[in-house]
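Case study B.
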Amino acid sequence: MAAPLGNLESQLELFIENVRQIRIIVSDFQPQGQNVLNQKIQGLVTGLQEIDKLKSQVQDIHVPLEVFDYIDQGKNPQLYTKDCIDKALTKNEEVKGKIDAYRKFKGNMLSELNRTFPNELAKYRAIRGDE
Amino acid sequence: MMSDQFRGKVEQYSPKSSPRGARSPVVSRQDSTGTLKTTISLGKNPSIVHSGPFYLMKEPPGESELTGARNLMAYYGLEHSYSKFSGKKLKEQLSSFLPNLPGVIDTPGDQDNSSLRSLIDKPPIGGKELLPLTSLQLSGFRLHPGPLPEQYRYINQAPQKKHHKKNKHKNKNKGETPTGLESTIIDIGGADTHEKKHKKQKRHDEEKEARKKRKKEKKRKKQKHSPEHSGGLTPSQHSNS
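Model:
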């Protein structure tokens, strides 16, 4: 999984670098720079072709849409990962708390029922098994 | 007289006086042994089947192997990621995640119409073959010599960043920069800036040298005048001479 992403990343970096260099060339254009500029523009097309070729390799990579919101707001997308981990951990603890509470409740309930209705509970246990 | 009559009528219907006590008279309760288990099925042929000692007893739900009672972070082997993100404080800006990206990238994307969300909302035209430009098409990119007008010059210009050295090094290693463009790696603004910087650095070095020389001379003079002066050279002077 890492190789296709790595390829795509390096291709995108090359493309961005190419655009950056074009920007430098045109920001103070010199007549002798026309050939270089033409090469760079052709380089853009080649770069796009290369990126397009890598499309098939990253078809099965899914990106959560919420990450885009973070990036669009100029935020570090790792903050999204951090938020997700924090949320998952909180939920995990919450559910574990609930499960523990229900388990305790069941234990208390059975002991109280045993005290009040010993015969019925014995029958219940006989049906349910050793719970 | 009237009230006595009324009381008599009420007591007739009162549950206290009912022969079955407070029980509903409709359903007869034959089972007094405590072995009631009833299955009630509705539909076309409703039926009541007595099959055990408890009402409403259902099969318990099947126990799943994985529940929230388990530490799921450990189960999925994400402890490393957890410690990575919870330990240190992450930098908020996008530029700290993509330090090598040129330009200002920390501003909201909808300001300059560069948001990723807009790519989803309005997908670009795709599916066409990408072909190199012909010489005729390239002639459309023929530019006039000279700098860009002022209003376009500083758009998206990257602010001075701390990691310039790293950037410079990376680019040098890659060797992708065309000749004559190295000067602009530090500042996108133009070649002049770097030249100025070079000059500045040169001047700085010269000043440093001069200062060193002056210091040395001062030291020599001092040694000449000091009573302990033996007329010999310092080890550094030795090596110099």
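Chain A has a mean pLDDT of 92. The remaining cases will be described in the next quarterly update.
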